[in-house]
Amino acid sequence: MTAAEGDDDVLVLRSVVKSFGSTRAVDGIDLTVQAGSFYGIVGPNGAGKTTTLSMIAGLLSPDRGSIRVGGVDFAADPHAAKQMMGVLPDRLRTFDRLTGRQLLYYYGVLRGLRPAVVESRTADLARAFDLTEALGRVVSDYSAGMAKKVMLAGAMIHSPRLLVLDEPFEAVDPVSSAVILDILSTYVAHGGTVILSSHGMDLVERVCSRVAVIVAGQVLAEGSIEEVRGELTLEQRFVELAGGLSDVEGLEWLHTFSG
Known about the structure:
Layout: E1 9-20, E2 23-34, E3 38-42, H1 49-57, E4 64-69, E5 72-73, H2 78-83, E6 85-88, H3 100-110, H4 115-128, H5 144-156, E7 162-166, H6 174-189, E8 193-197, H7 201-207, E9 210-215, E10 218-224, H8 225-229, H9 234-241
Parallel strand pairs: 3-8, 3-9, 6-7, 7-8
Antiparallel strand pairs: 1-2, 1-4, 4-5, 9-10
Helix pairs in contact: 3-4, 3-5
């Protein structure tokens, strides 16, 4: 552990770089996330948010730099690092021909839990996420909100220290969003840590304690919500950092309307 790292830092990224061919998707990112925090990552499409979260989750390996989870160097002991995390990736891909109950059982035993523990926790999670009646149905029949909830339940079943969530509220109805947010807030209040990406600036501003704005693979601003937004709203500050509004000159023809 370096002098810059604290005992309560559950996630530390230092000089992390990732390229795809000639495109540098992540360009020397440093992040420090403390335990018991709700940490937001925002940025325009293609900014490197998903690539960053994928490296934190162990789905991609960085070309350079280091990632530590709970004091464990990811490169040195990826199994131990992954054991401390629950992951909800963007663009849900899962075994959707399984029932909800079968999927959660699979998640649980994959994490090394005993079958009786998996069954007990499945019942608890289903009640919390309002999925009890849906457990017997195949996941392919779920709505987008229900699919997101069952996958988040699967990410939490082994009681991880850190949740890595890529767009957890995308395509989710307001009722499901409220349920998910309530569960995550309680999890953080009891010492868990959430790092999430979102396009919903209002939501990030409302629930996150700290935020990083990533543009073109670099962190352009990082700190508490108040520090990053200054006198603006978070959305206004984000637009400012991301390069401002698009240029609409040349679209005058659009206002003439056809016949």
